Amino acid sequence: MHHSFIVKTSGWAQQMFLYFLVSGTHSLVTVHQPPVLTTALGHDVIMPCHLNLSQNEKMMTPPVLYWVYLTQDGTDNPRVWIPSEKYDGRVELLDNNPNTSSKSILLKNVQWADSGKYQCKVSVITEGDRFRRRGNDTLLMVYDTMILKLTGHNDSLLGCKVNVTRDPGFVLSIFHDGFKLQPVDTAPGDADAVLPYVTLSETISLRSKGQYECQLYLNEDLVTKSIFNYHTPVAADDADAQTNVSLTCPTTVSGVVVFPEPWPLYMALLLVPITILLGLTSALLMRMYRCRYR
Ligand SMILES: *[C@@H]1O[C@H](CO)[C@@H](O)[C@H](O)[C@H]1NC(C)=O
Ligand SMILES: *[C@@H]1O[C@H](CO)[C@@H](O)[C@H](O)[C@H]1NC(C)=O
Ligand SMILES: *[C@@H]1O[C@H](CO)[C@@H](O)[C@H](O)[C@H]1NC(C)=O
Ligand SMILES: *[C@@H]1O[C@H](CO)[C@@H](O)[C@H](O)[C@H]1NC(C)=O
Ligand SMILES: *[C@@H]1O[C@H](CO)[C@@H](O)[C@H](O)[C@H]1NC(C)=O
Ligand SMILES: CC(=O)N[C@H]1CO[C@H](CO)[C@@H](O)[C@@H]1O
């Protein structure tokens, strides 16, 4: 009884396999791509796509990959991979082997017009069938360099500005030593419908010294941030504020990082010739000493 059960399992598995082939249930082949991606203007972005094939599905030929940009009206969707004229020279495959499950592409030098939805599609030929699977679209959103600086005629305000793809999910906030500040002025983006992006802006009044941080969120995810260190408390009168305000340039965390001068390295480099010189001098002195007292 028990024995026969074991013998039968392989037959059962085969039947299941046949069932999937015959019934045309292709739930065992899926295409995965992330729902949302953000990238800085002018940068390159990897758009992931992954073909998931269950063990018992065998492809007869390497799968054929397509990526398309979904236009808003849904017509004339340009092909991103294999690149149509519009994308020529701007798109690369991350993995050139057509047999691997990675179907990700690299889109280079992202522009505002690249904001939007992208779909990854894969054509598969298995032993019993040929069909096409598509991913659930990736929405690409673009942001420009964030600017965080003193504003107002007496530098009593700190303003944060950033241009982003038009989307209600983008939110700017300014924090002081970890606490969120109430803005004195905020612009959710002017309604210039001609431009493919909006300028988000937020201003707070400076209270005390410390670290001010402007953060750009897309829904729950931190996209980019910028830090401003304010060293001296705002003084009572204007003259004080003018002379005694000391600032450091804002450091854009997601962008260029400025490294301090490598003074220890310079010292080390200087020390080498000095040590050699000292060695030579002492050797010379020793010889002179020996000569004199010989
Ligand atoms: C695509 O979305 C549908 C509906 O939201 C979901 O049922 C399906 O599992 C998703 N497919 C993938 C591959 O994530
Ligand atoms: C691929 O499918 C298997 C089950 O068939 C699942 O365990 C695995 O998580 C899937 N991989 C991805 C990337 O979704
Ligand atoms: C991909 O697989 C096919 C057989 O299905 C083989 O002929 C081909 O050489 C493989 N290509 C690479 C780059 O491995
Ligand atoms: C946003 O774009 C406008 C041009 O429309 C430009 O003048 C402005 O400097 C940009 N703002 C930022 C913060 O980059
Ligand atoms: C800076 O100007 C604002 C009005 O623009 C004023 O309310 C504030 O008192 C001024 N701050 C100082 C330190 O003078
Ligand atoms: C105008 C003024 O009050 N200047 C002050 C700025 O801060 C230095 C100390 O760092 C004081 O000595 C100055 O009097």
List the main descriptive attributes of the protein structure presented here.
294 residues, Immunoglobulin-like, 2 domains, 20% helix, disordered N terminus, binds 2-acetamido-2-deoxy-beta-D-glucopyranose, glycoprotein
Please describe what this structure looks like.
Keywords: Cell membrane, Disulfide bond, Glycoprotein, Immunoglobulin domain, Membrane, Receptor, Signal, Transmembrane, Transmembrane helix. The protein has about 290 residues and is an alpha+beta fold. It has two domains: about 30-140, Sandwich (Immunoglobulin-like), CATH 2.60.40.10; about 145-260, Immunoglobulin-like (Sandwich). It has helices spanning about 1-25, 240-245, 265-290, and strands at about 30, 35-40, 45, 50-55, 65-70, 80, 90-95, 105, 115-125, 130-135, 140-145, 145-150, 155-165, 170-175, 180, 185, 195-205, 210-220, 220-230, 250. The longest helix is centred in the C-terminal third of the chain and has 30 residues, at about 265-290. The model is unreliable at about 1-25 and about 235-260 (pLDDT under 50). The structure holds 2-acetamido-2-deoxy-beta-D-glucopyranose (NAG) (6 copies). One 2-acetamido-2-deoxy-beta-D-glucopyranose binds near residues 147 and 163.
